[in-house]
Amino acid sequence: MQKLLEQLTAGASLSLELGGFLLCMLASVAAALAAEFMYELFYEQRATGSQIQKSFLLVGPSITFLFICIQLSLPLSLGLLGALSIIRFRTPVKEPEEIGFLMLLIAGSIGLATFNFLFVLLLYAVIFVLLTIRHWGPLRRRWINRRSGVLLLNLDDDTYARQGAALAELLGRHFRGLRLESIASVEGTTSLHYAFAHAPSDNWSEIQQAIRREVPCRKINVFFSSPGSLV
User: Fold this and answer.
1) Which of 40, 49, 142, 219 could cysteine-pair with 44, CB 3.0–4.6 Å?
2) What is the C-alpha separation between 31 and 123, in angstroms, rounded?
3) How many domains are there within the chain?
4) Element spanning 108, H or E
């Protein structure tokens, strides 16, 4: 056992025998499950996504096995790398965090295939700590709850002429970083396009009621830049 622990911390000195191969594959399965757990813990509640975490258990051990085979044969490694260079994803990646978790899974699988178990463990530990700090730490309100987007309002020309200043003041109380992007008037209707950096309240019905009480609007639409919530 002591010899095995020394080999695990020594990196690529572990021999490619049956025991070493099985250990690599088991570690790769554990790493894939850990990546899937972190994805579901931190990003599962997003509104979009391709459920890519369901493939981690297949992708991780497969990459580990592939790079173990590459180490055993130079001609095989050249052929595999040439074949992999023409592979394309037919389904586009839907969310940016999917790329990050794929890179984490690939890096961990390659590290395990080269017997750098300690480095892979440290990599996963650092990633988990960083994600935990980002989602539940003191910076959560700034990073996670920030909801930027656009606000579209339609109201009569006469109403805007009389209450335009009051409307701007009212919106400034509910939306931070508010700025008027465009204004258009067509057939007696004024259309206002605002962009905002942060909306502190999630009770949109109250915001709409407050706007309609002071300024009668025909339509009020809010669109967020990032759908879903990174909770």
Assistant:
1) 40
2) 11
3) 2
4) helix 96-113
